[in-house]
Specification:
The chain is of the alpha+beta class. The protein folds into 2 domains: about 1-125, Alpha-Beta Plaits; about 135-260, Alpha-Beta Plaits, CATH 3.30.70. It is about 25% helix and about 30% strand. The two termini are about 15 Å apart.
């Protein structure tokens, strides 16, 4: 299910980080804690994976912020919102997650992004598309896919890397297992993903972004990601998992949300 969360801005201007992913993710966990501290802790540490699993799937994702009236302060490296309301879209297939999120929003009525505090506005349920085995998507937040090098560092894959499709497929299967507690047994021989050549040409091949999480902190992390419409062919169940949870990695940090 997808929710559009509208946040009301009470001051004339608010300062927001250019890379707000970490701060939105932190605000989501604070909102969950307003409903259930136990659930928030469980989600933060384990998500919907077993405690012994190496990979932790939180099974939610969110879009970039929609700030209608804004300026960029290059000197301070921040976004200045002059909007009366801003919004973002959040998605998850898990009912308990969505229940605690909405409950927490109504309990606190506040949503803090870094140092800026907004009030809860409308919470809207968005209609689902008709899922088919081949679908075109545009990105609401960048897609990141990586592999581990022999020295245990991560290599982020480019849009034209032949390894991207099989890695993305395995990721979707793993999230399917986390959501349904059973292996996906459908045929995936026809799985493929391709990025819009027209979009790539229009942007002179510059469709990749370097995004910094927790900028300026000791745990600062740089993520290479792809921002480009794509066409995917896969079993409907796996496409729906990608739509609901996000495609690729780091979905709970605001990566991989796509719109049909």
């Amino acid at each position: 299910m997808r929710l559009k969360l509208t946040l009301l801005q009470k001051r004339k201007t608010e300062s927001l980080p250019l890379n707000a992913n970490y701060y939105i993710s932190a605000a989501i966990y604070r909102t969950l804690e307003q409903s259930s501290p136990e659930f928030a802790t469980l989600m933060h540490h384990y998500g919907y994976s077993n405690p012994e699993d190496r990979r932790k799937f939180k099974l939610f994702t969110f879009s970039n912020l929609d700030v209608p009236e804004r300026d960029i302060d290059r000197e301070r490296q921040c976004l200045i919102s002059r909007s009366k309301a801003i919004s973002f879209t959040l998605s998850s297939p898990m009912d308990d997650f969505l229940m605690h999120l909405v409950s927490g929003l109504f309990a606190d009525n506040k949503f803090r992004i870094d140092e800026s505090i907004f009030e809860k506005g409308a919470v809207e349920t968005l209609p689902e598309p008709e899922f088919k085995e081949t679908m075109e998507f545009s990105m609401l937040s960048p897609l990141t896919v990586s592999v581990m090098r022999p020295d245990r560092t991560k290599e982020f894959l480019k849009y034209n890397d032949e390894r991207l499709a099989p890695v993305l497929l395995q990721n979707l299967k793993a999230k399917y297992y986390a959501a349904h507690r059973k292996e996906f047994e459908g045929n995936t021989d026809s799985f493929r993903i391709s990025f819009s050549e027209r979009y790539i040409e229009k942007h002179n091949g510059k469709i990749e972004k370097l995004i910094t999480l927790k900028e300026g902190r000791e745990e600062e992390t740089k993520i290479k990601a792809i921002l480009c419409p794509f066409t995917i062919t896969a079993p409907v169940e796996l496409i729906k998992i990608g739509y609901d949870c996000g495609f690729g990695e780091r979905n709970s940090q605001g990566f991989g949300m796509a719109k049909a």
